[in-house]
Design a protein that fits this description.
This protein has one domain. The chain is about 15% helix and about 10% strand. With about 170 residues, the chain is mostly loops. A 4-stranded mixed β-sheet has the order 1-2-3-4, with no helix packed on it. The structure holds iron/sulfur cluster (2 copies). One iron/sulfur cluster binds next to helix 3. The site of one iron/sulfur cluster has 16 residues, from helix 3.
């Protein structure tokens, strides 16, 4: 592996309340993610796709030969380690210049995102998992079933070399 990629983020990250499945603005189109292409989604629908796993806010390394992403347990300093949400979502671009905002354009090749990321799943034509907040109706299930980074990461400000903190539990 040779190419270092900084913490990545998504437009769906939020710094306060977790996204939930039942929202008045989403109600008119049930299971909209199965009916609409990503490019046709409204902002609230797009935002609600984020499952709150926090994986995209970890330092990671790309294998230059295979393109495989190797994750660490080193999180962006703005990530709330419990909720797995950005603690300053509104100002994230100014505070973390390499924070990537997810758009249909940045999903043209979504393999840089975790395999479980809802944006990647939909971009690749795959269904959302049954633990996804939009599917199960419970925004806590992503944490309870171990699909998030909650309680398993350390702050980048406490780490000298993220490469020494590679983990195999992020997929
Ligand atoms: S990796 Fe997780 S936190 Fe990041 S955008 Fe995808 S679903 Fe949201
Ligand atoms: S600023 Fe950091 S914590 Fe916030 S969304 Fe971007 S990578 Fe994640």
């Amino acid at each position: 592996m040779s190419v270092v990629t900084g913490p990545l983020s998504a437009a769906a990250q939020t710094s306060t309340e977790p996204t939930i499945d039942v929202r008045p603005d989403l109600a008119p189109v049930a299971r909209f993610w199965e009916q609409l292409p990503l490019t046709a989604m409204k902002a609230a629908q797009w935002e609600s796709l984020c499952d709150g796993c926090g994986k995209c806010c970890l330092a990671k390394y790309e294998d230059a030969d295979t393109g495989h992403m190797h994750y660490t347990d080193v999180a962006c300093f703005l990530l709330d380690h419990h909720s797995c949400r950005c603690s300053d979502y509104a100002q994230r671009a100014e505070r973390v210049p390499d924070c990537v905002t997810l758009t249909p354009a940045t999903l043209a090749d979504p393999r840089w995102l975790p395999q479980t990321c809802a944006y990647r799943l939909l971009a690749e034509g795959r269904p959302l998992p049954d633990w996804h907040p939009l599917v199960c109706g419970d925004p806590a299930r992503v944490h309870l079933q171990g699909h998030s980074v909650s309680g398993r990461v350390r702050c980048e400000r406490e780490v000298k070399d993220p490469l020494l903190h590679l983990v195999d539990w992020v997929c």
